[in-house]
């Protein structure tokens, strides 16, 4: 598929897909005429990249961990890099903090919606806790 189709299927602008290519995160095949051809598996890969970026993981780290996303539950590292490990631990801890923050906000929104429903007469009030 061409880059426009990959952009349509992933919701990622072509300019961003070209950036991913520059960063080595996706690699299209080159046709005899020089055109890029993007394989179907890249749809999933782009979604994973977007998810990691959305979680705050920088592209320099994404490039290192992308191969691990296609492996089973057991990951074998042959040449551990202490600096990369430190960055991954920091990113994991930031994700954990964001998840906790999002859960708190989700729960607050749920309570607010329930209070609105009670005020509108849609639900009976809960007994005091």
How would you describe this protein?
By secondary structure, the protein is mainly alpha-helical. Helices cover 59% and strands 3% of the residues. The protein is built from five helices and two strands, in the order ααββααα. A two-stranded antiparallel ribbon has the order 1-2. Strand 1 and strand 2 form a beta hairpin. The longest helix is centred in the last third of the chain and has 38 residues, at 82-119. It is flat and about 70 Å long.
Please render the helix and strand layout as text.
Layout: H1 3-10, H2 14-22, E1 29-30, E2 36-37, H3 41-54, H4 59-65, H5 82-119
Antiparallel strand pairs: 1-2
Using brief descriptors, characterize the structure shown.
129 residues, mainly alpha, two-stranded antiparallel ribbon, 2 strands, flat
